[in-house]
Amino acid sequence: MGWSGMEVRPEWDLGKMRELRFVVLVLVISLPCFSASDPQGDALYDMKQKLNVTGGQLSDWNQNQVNPCTWNSVICDNNNNVVQVTLAARGFTGVLSPRIGELQYLSVLSLAGNRITGTVPEEFGNLSSLTSLDLEDNLLVGEVPASLGNLSKLTLLILSKNNFNGSIPDSIANISSLTDIRLAYNNLSGQIPGSLFQVARYNFSGNHLNCGPNFPHSCASSMSYQSGSHSSKIGLILGTVGGILGLLIVGALFLICNARRKSHLREVFVDVAGEDDRRIAVGQIKRFAWRELQIATDNFNERNVLGQGGFGKVYKGVLPDATKIAVKRLTDYDSPGGEAAFLREVELISVAVHRNLLRLIGFCTTQTERLLVYPFMQNLSVACRLRDFKPGEPILDWPSRKRVAIGTARGLEYLHEHCNPKIIHRDVKAANVLLDEDFEPVVGDFGLAKLVDVQKTSVTTQVRGTMGHIAPEYLSTGKSSERTDVFGYGIMLLELVTGQRAIDFSRLEEEEDVLLLDHVKKLQREGELDSIVDNNLNQNYDSEDLEMIIQIALLCTQASPEDRPSMSEVVRMLEGEGLAERWEEWQHVEVTRRQEYERMQRRFDWGEDSVYNQEAIELSAGR
Prior knowledge:
The protein has helices at 14-30, 39-50, 170-173, 233-262, 290-296, 338-351, 382-387, 398-417, 472-477, 482-498, 516-525, 543-556, 567-574, 579-620, and strands at 74-76, 82-86, 108-110, 132-134, 141-143, 156-158, 163-166, 180-182, 187-191, 201-203, 208-210, 224-226, 267-270, 278-281, 286-287, 305-308, 312-318, 324-330, 362-365, 370-375, 422-424, 433-435, 441-443, 450-452, 459-460, 479-480. The chain folds into 3 domains: 39-230, Ribonuclease Inhibitor (Leucine-rich repeat, LRR (right-handed beta-alpha superhelix)); 255-376, 2-Layer Sandwich (Phosphorylase Kinase, domain 1); 389-577, Transferase(Phosphotransferase) domain 1 (Transferase(Phosphotransferase), domain 1). It is of the alpha/beta class and 623 residues long. It has 14 helices and 26 strands. Helix 8 packs antiparallel against helix 10, helix 10 packs antiparallel against helix 12 and helix 12 (543-556) crosses helix 14 (579-620). A hairpin with a 7-residue loop joins strand 13 (267-270) and strand 14 (278-281). Strands 1-2-3-4-6-8-10-12 form an 8-stranded mixed beta sheet, with no helix packed on it.
């Protein structure tokens, strides 16, 4: 008898059983955070269902994928606890799931700018770690739940532009951590709890509220306020005068600093705590004032979040001259690597100038903030265009995908072979390739990039990157080289062709390979290239181009870094030179490797069969 009392039948493919057991073992070893069931994933999946998510949105929020930390718009901490869910302006029309209240580690929830109906569940009061709740600009009704008063860590509460009625619960006024409350443009009535006027920023306008006995006059002028106290009229006057004087002083300082800056356009000096002054040559890059970027991003409103990387969020912004920008705000500038990442990014992007590399407009430093300013990419990232486009939006067509392939290759070629010292990106993937208004690709996010001396072929460092895109030698040894980027580029080519992610556990249900690379290799061996292509293309692609790109991708993702082509060779192959010879060589190596694997597999199968045969002999022997 076999596992769990099941009879082992001769017709079972024992090789496949062992292969499945091996895959499961690898998953268990590689991903110890997974469990048979994750309550966080269940809660988020129920949230998706209740929001009436349609089209390709949140396609990776898969009920059978038990680790939600890999899902789009979900951020986890180092212990794999869901701490942030940002789904602003997605067009959702459903209702809020009570199961959201089960996310006990959630600190930020943003669902602003949708068309969500129904009420706010009382269970939201169970979100004991919540610091920011933004449900602005929806169609929510009913009363503001008194249970929100249980959120003792809440600092930001935005419920404006809905249809809430009733009064403001007294319990909310008891949240001592609250610094910003906005309830404007609802149907609220009754008296505003007096303590809410002590909050640094509030907005109650557009309701039927009264200010209570402390404000016997019409309180229309008191409905919206930032930063202060209502202690007395004298204080208000003094504050106004002080503000004017402050503006005059700031203006004078600005003129002095600006005059000095004009004589030093070629260099900027950044003070780094604990180090000597460090000179950064950044050419004509602008140094922004903090206030400029605060205004441009609407005080870093969560609705303007474009994405989040290793060291911070990226916000959409607009400058006074109507220039659209993307502002990367480092949220852990004082953590190990945060400051270094900022300096590295400023240095790298200031010297790397190429049409297929993201241009840095400027930066900002204060005692508590580090920010980078880029041009806004109207068409977002390649990953968004492949997997997260909204219904009705145009797909990334085949000619555009070819432009992405060649443009990204040229950008990486420039980093590897035309910069001195050369630059290794270390996180090449579709999410880090952006698209301008003409769908031309630009390689972005140099937060993980590394300068490499021309005399060295590799550098040992902390492994950084995205699973599924990391080259095997980098993962096992910590040594990265330009061939590490080549591997990531090869995986990105497979993303372009298939529209799929580098790792997809939903393929386990169909007994397919979890890794996109293995999945494509299998279909290539079986001569089923057409089944690889993204269904969104509706078969509108060139078969010869497809074969070429798949071949280049497989050459780039060879296990040995020495066997991979350089990016200049990749560019030439994309232009029609040298691919046939490299591909023939690859096929020979691959066939040899497969034959050796099959020989070992047969030897292993024979060994296990002999055990079963020995048992049969013993059972039939005399007693």
